[in-house]
Amino acid sequence: MQSGQTGFVRKTISAVLDAPPATVAELLRDLEQYPKWLDLVAGVETTAATEGDAGPAWLVTLRAKVGPFARSKRLRMVRVTNQPDHLRFERAEVDGRDHASWVLAAQLSNTQPCMVDVELSYSGGLWSTPLESILGSQTSDAIERLKALAE
Predict the structure, then answer these.
(1) Residue 28: is it exposed, middle or buried by C-beta count within 10 angstroms (0-12/13-18/19+)?
(2) Residue 119 domain boundaries
(3) What is the pTM for the complete model shown?
């Protein structure tokens, strides 16, 4: 877990997947696949892209639970980079207000086994503490589920 400043969280999940890079990239480029392997992502549905979006858009529901307390957050994300070895999704709300940034980026090798780094970063303050705790505890389960989907 890396945290640079107050209110900033960055977590990288690294895995080696015994699957072709094209299969792994296809799995990671569709946000609707993420609830299958990453517990933080409780739900995803496609939504219409708007003028200025770099790619397709999704409504993503994030859910973090620490003990008896849970927080949910729904945000609109757009795929802004779609290359064979690099994918990037960014929060892109259309309500005209300023929002904390959420970024989900995946870097993958062009070899088999395929080495993958999936990084989630968040710049707000409200979710920082529970998010660090949640992501830290979910990493090994997420890697195993991602392997099962890809392989």
Answers:
(1) buried
(2) 9-150
(3) 0.87
Question: What end-to-end distance do the CA atoms of the chain give, in Å?
Answer: 26
Residue 60 has φ and ψ, to the nearest 5°, of -115, 130
pLDDT higher at 42 or 122: 42
Q: Is the previous residue joined to 113 through a cis bond, with omega within 30 degrees of 0?
A: yes
For the chain, the domain total comes to: 1
The mean-pLDDT minimum among 5-9, 34-38, 138-142 falls in 5-9
CB 3 within 8 A of CB 98: no
Q: How many residues are listed for the chain in this entry?
A: 151
Helix (H, G, I), strand (E, B) or coil at 91: strand
Name which residue leads in pLDDT, 73 or 126: 73
Asked if residue 33 has pLDDT above 70, the reply is yes
CATH number where 70 lies = 3.30.530.20
Full DSSP string of 49-89: --TT-SS-EEEEEEEEEETTEEEEEEEEEEEEEEETTEEEE
